[in-house]
Design goal:
The protein is mainly α. 71% of the residues lie in helices and 0% in strands. It is flat. The protein starts with a helix and ends in a 15-residue tail after the last helix.
Length: 292
Amino acid sequence: VSRFIIALIIANGIAVMLESNPAIHYEYAHLFAAFEVFSVIIFTVEYLARLWAATEYPKYAGMNPILARIRWIFRPMPIVDLLAILPFYLSLVVPIDLRYLRLFRLLRLLKLSHHFDGLEVFAIVLRREAGAIAGALTIMMIITIVSACLMFTVENSAAPGHFESVSQAIWWAVVTLTTVGYGDITPITFPGKLLGIAIMILGVGTMALPAGILAARFSEELRTRRELMQGKVRDALIDGILDAAELHELESLQRDLGLSADELQRIIAVQQRLLARHHYCPHCGEALTGTD
């Protein structure tokens, strides 16, 4: 079922791109319409199924079923799921511009986060590092505005039609700091070129800050989850036997941590090989060498 939903989501993204071509849209309009109806039916059933099963979430344990489902509805991803199908039903009673309808249909691509654990981990990292990322973005904004003001001051009178305002200079600053370099606006004075060189060099390190923060935190989060999984597997194997109840608990934890089933099996295999060579203290997990 999961693979079918993933394939359907990707197919919807492809359909939106193809449908934007007028020639293809008019020739295959009936097929696009049929596919849209089919997709909305499937996504509606999926949404209702998730809504019904919301009471099974551990965080809603013991809560009134109606209240649990209401709280689930207002979570970020359920809102995205609803926005991905709601415009279709609204378009049946209210005329909606096709461009906006197509934009909401693209939200269906975000539904992939239900089926790829890595995306969920990335979302967690974003939330935890929101402060650091906000700080990095603030620094980038300040550098952009200062660069634009300096370039406007230097080039305004020398390059008419290019640096006519600070807002136009901001466009140049963003393009330069990100090292994109469209070339539609360029400084022509010597001081302006020197300033441009300094801004380019500054941009190489500054614009990489958010990416560096996310990459480091993402790697750390995965390592922490693997270490937690390894500890739980080691505890389960203390007696040398992994029974069905322990395996079920480990599999549940593996899903909660966003790790793959193959990774769990690798961790179990590694810990079993270590256990074959050493005995471990049941309290601290340290190897007890020389123990019979």
